[in-house]
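User: I'll paste a sequence; please echo it back and then give the predicted structure.

Assistant: Echoing your sequence first, then the prediction.
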Amino acid sequence: MSLSIIRGISRKPAASGKLVDRLSPQPDLFGQLFIGYPIVSTPKGGHAIDALWISVDKGIVVFDLIEGDIGDYKLRQDDTANKLEARLRTHSELMRRRELRIPIHTISFAPGVHDPTSHSEDDYPLANATSILQALEAFTWGGDGEVYQKALSAIESMSTIRQNGTRRTIKRKDSRGAKLKRLEDSIATLDRTQSEAVIETVEGVQRIRGLAGSGKTIVLALKAAYLHALHPDWRIAVTFNTRSLKGQFHRLINNFSLEQTGKEPDWENLRILNAWGAPGGVERDGIYCEFCRVHDVEYFDLRSAQSRFVRGGEFAAVCEHALRQARDVRRIYDAILVDESQDFSPAFLRLCYQLLKDDKRLVYAYDELQNLSEESLPAPDEIFGENTGGSPKVRFDEGSRRDIILQKCYRNSRPVLVTAHALGFGIYREPPQTSETGLVQMFDHPQLWEEIGYRKKNGELREGKSVTFDRSEEGSPKFLEEHSDIGDLVQFIPFDSEAEQAEYLTKAIKKNLTEDELRHNDIIVINPDPLTTRDQVGPIRRRLLEMGINCHIAGVDTDPDIFFRKSETSVTFTGVHRAKGNEAGMVYIINAQDCHSAARNLASIRNRLFTAITRSKAWVRVLGVGSGMAELMKEYHTLKARNFELQFVYPTGEQREQLRIVHRDMTEEERERLASLQRNFVDLIKDLESGAIRPEDLDKNTVAKLNELLLEKR
């Protein structure tokens, strides 16, 4: 353990730099040192504390940094300490009767003052670079690890922003509701990497990568609110792909702003926008729509885009079209933050980049594994292009604060996450007769496994070699799985019919609500196929309503921007696409058999199962019917028997390319065309076998070309 330094935006860069230079090399200093953070409320708006150090042996030390005249530093010390104490007193867990359980010390640091003792008083210490370490020795605290963690969470505002407005009623310490509350309390403090991603701000483009559940959405929300609090005049946009994230972003940003500054954001300057958007007012607006409007270029909605461009890539096409049509680019934003960037083409990120003023503050976050087969976005030089001199517009140097990887997963326990990966990649899938491997997809870059928190246990991480991975505790904290038996964390439950599946599910949800002390919004029911969700969940929902349990389909019974209903108790049903970006304690996945095998699009279909499983904060129930479900269960039981380790032969480049071809995505038109050609081919073979058509009847050049192509592919 050492002193962790988180550098925010400092209005006193020289003094803060000197403070960091003096404290950072000291091996006996521990805890967190924040520069330009937190923000406290003042009559003139949010004010960033110059620097704050919190540790188990010191408590809280607030630094008044001085550049130039000393001024009335005693008044500044009192004012800052009083405002911080007033904020911390709102957290009952930090109070013992009327006393704060952690001390707040103050000190002024004036590196330019030659003799600070001539100005200092006992109750108002003042130090320079020479005397600062000795001055800090006077600050002590008895130390309480639990209070320290709660105070750190309060300073980071995590204990407040995670609240969703619904209180838990806990009567039994061993109930699922009690376990979930303890889990939520345990993750209420940001880790160092997350804190850096929130507070540390760089000029230019910044990339944040991480697994589902690593905190990307929370980091972006806090970063937007932090920038807005410091620069309320800036025009900032937050955008995303999954529309149901809009409400979540609004809640997180609003809670953070209230905690930090005492007032709601100015929503005219801090905008939460869909990526596409449509004309019709602020609530419908989007980044692409706004780009078209301010540049007076043609706007396409989905229907018109489908009639003009290739299906499946409509949004990328309309963004490219808008960029080509725009003449004099208008730079209207000071900062843009993009969540779920793996769902966007480089064209959309370039469109955001064009809308930014000269400093180009673009922060884009994405899930390394949202597309399991490869990195989901190209390198930054490929996305943003080159300057006129040939140098890349955007480059991330190794170790740069511009490129942050969130390795820890705070949503999924080790068994849940590894199960999702094993099924998503087809690690233990039985090889079909036409293939040597059961793998469905694989990274092009083997080192990605280690970058996302796996460690090589055995074998070689090389193409054509066998390798075994397990999930490190550093990447998957142990407390995420210790609350329940592994057999309770993940369960695969087969049924003979959909009716039996529905009967089990409705009874299980009723038990969750009446006995397990779970709330309605602790439960999500996911149907992997988004096209069949409404029909598939209909009988289940009718049965729940007969039992007196409210439920809704996200985006169908609610506004498209709403996932959980906040105003009433209601269980959420959803297709997999709307589930992205959301989470719940108990996740039920129905009709999982549809994800076992398919003639086409198997990689995407397996990705649906991966996404659905990783929505869970605690427990997963994978339900399915028939032989496909039985085969999925075999894969899971093999994984469980191997203690949730992944063992496979890493496919070669040629094999990975073959996997991409075999399991590639195909549009409905492409599938219909292929099916028609196959039927014709089968009919031709039958006619040749029966003699209805003779080989001599066929065009020789066509037959020769067909033989050549088939032999070449072998």
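The chain has a mean pLDDT of 87. The longest strand covers residues 356-367.
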